[in-house]
Amino acid sequence: MDLLLAPPTAAGPVRLGRPYEEALTAVRPWGEPRIAGPTARRARRLMGDFDGVGYTVSFDAEDHAAAVELWWPGEGRLSTARVLLEGHEVFTTPADTVLAELRGRGWSVDVEDPENVVVPGVSLGFTRRTSQEVPRDGQGLPVSFTSVLVAGEGYYDFRCAQ
After folding, report:
1. What count of other Cβ atoms lies within 10 Å of the Cβ of residue 55?
2. Contact by Cβ (8 Å): 143, 94
3. What is the pTM of this model?
4. Tens digit of pLDDT for each residue in 19-58?
5. For residue 16, what pLDDT band results from cuts at 50, 70 and 90?
6. 160 and 102 in contact (C-beta within 8 Å)?
7. Is the Cα torsion angle 92, 93, 96, 101 positive or negative in sign?
8. What is the predicted pLDDT for the residue at 63?
9. What is the 3-state secondary structure (H, E, C) of the chain?
10. CA-CA distances (angstroms) from residue 40 to 37, 43, 61, 87?
11. Residues 6 or more apart from 64 whose CB is under 8 A from it?
């Protein structure tokens, strides 16, 4: 199955800005998620995995889906699920190729912290961190991304203000 990323509106079947019950219904075909919160310090979250791809759906104070983060299955683990952004499989395509494609679309890419890359205008975030044995580039970073976050508009605006 392909999980299509459509920032800043959706990640797979989860539509950002939609109520909790709709997000819960969207992820249930992947298996029953773990539900955390809400607590006094943190809004509600849904967590689980789909064919080895881990996910967290985070909600805002009004209980609407605010962000979806997806994680690479991990070293030596295979998954039939593909996480696709602009036709590129996020966890197997070299990160530099994905970033070049995003820049080619005219999107601003903030690589100030190369382990935590963001695309503020469309609310995308990527990480390139793992302690696992994976191919690495000349800077010691994993060649491909290890997680991706898709959020609603304005999620990374604070990075633009710095």
Report:
1. 22
2. yes
3. 0.90
4. 999 999 999 998 899 999 877 777 889 999 998 899 999 9
5. very high
6. no
7. negative
8. 93
9. CEEEEECCCEECCEECCCEHHHHHHHHHHHCCCEEECCCCCCCCEEEEEECCEEEEEEECCCCEEEEEEEECCCCCCCCCCEEEECCEECCCCCHHHHHHHHHHCCCCCECCCCCEEEEHHHCEEEECCCCCCCCECCCCCECCCCEEEEECCCCCHHHHHC
10. 9, 8, 10, 40
11. 16, 17, 18, 19, 20
Bond into 8 cis (ω within 30): yes
Residues listed for the chain: 162
